[in-house]
Amino acid sequence: MNFIIPYHLTHHTPRDKQPDILPPPRYANYLPDELLLEILNHIPRDAENQHGLGTFCAVNRQWYDVGIATLYEAPHLWGAHFDLFVRTLCPSINTRIKKSELAGLVKSLNLSYIVHQSTKAVTARMLARTKHSLEVFIAPQASFAINCWASLSKCERLRVLDLSLISEAISFQSLNQCLRKLDGLERLVLPRCSTQFPDRTTPVDRHINWPPRLEHLTLSGSVHGKFLWEMMRQPDTFPPTLHSMSILHCPGLDYAGIKPLLENLSQTLTTVELRDLPAVKQGRFNAILNWLPHLTSLTVAIDYIDCDFGLRPTTHTSEHWSASKPLEELTLLTSSGMRDIDPDTAFTIPDLYDLLDNRFLGRMRRITVAKSCGWETEGEGAELEALAELLVDELDTENWTERRWHYADLAWGQGAEAGRSYREWIVETGVGRRMRAMLVVLQNR
Length: 445
What we know:
single chain, alpha/beta, Leucine-rich repeat, LRR (right-handed beta-alpha superhelix), 2 domains, two-stranded antiparallel sheet, 14 helices, disordered N terminus
């Protein structure tokens, strides 16, 4: 790729003496690194533009030196691309014979699109080669097994570990031993497949060792029986940094197991997701706002709650706005294989409208509803539109005017807020567009 320098910028021949035929344009074979970095920042990091990054690195040696770290930082791998990537990172089985310096550039290894293109040995080898730089690892479906744990435990910089796609049953003992060595892990997603938990006759340590910096935990699969009992029996093993938890795709987990688990973490949890739990019945999670007094974000299947969601006291009206629950984001979905629910007690738009209108959920900023909930068809969409108007035109406007909750730090009459109404502020300022309340309908759920 060459950049043309216009002739008129390099020559200053008087107009009356300019030749009729201009000489061929001159090219610049060198650009400062700062300009190359600026060009690099305009190339998206998605899969479609990965080829563009490769082309950028192929211009010359200088461009290669500037762009190669970005190209290998978080590669998009699928099909034939994966084979070439493996041969580049692992030119030989034995690293002492031949190793690749590019392996140290890989920070994110997403193998979610790899099914039959790899083997368990290759996965273990790739983890071993990238162990000094790897920060994010998403395990493949079929090529992760016991021989990968040793390599994974040596990834000392790992922050995100996603095992959700693994189809082979994993050993709790192997998982536990691996987690002991991942002190920097912040997000952990357990697999949906069954976990082989040791029985009481096996002489092993059942003490669960969660990473000390863990912030998010996703529980899936066979979270019941001994595994669940050990977690509830050892609540102190959860680190104080754990503020987010997702419980999904757990066929054997019911209300009796979920409630005490959440209550053990009531002082730290602020974000919770509950869906695809076939053993949970309608209305069982109505009191979750009482179980978790600091909850600010909730994603829940609508068939686990009913018209009594929140358990609002009849004495709580808009005058008691200062006692509003801290919930700011509510996402309502439907579980896969959704069961028939009682329409007479189902959680509907009027129920949510009542919670907002009486300021029981007076801090609400974002409501997301899946299209499969059927709320768009209620009253030909009029009820949903009325809910959006209440959220934005009344509740959020009131909180902005009175500088309540998340608007408390906004200064009156200064900066972007000076002389603007709420409507002008949310349209004309970046802060307003970012902080405004909204209602969203998910069309693909």
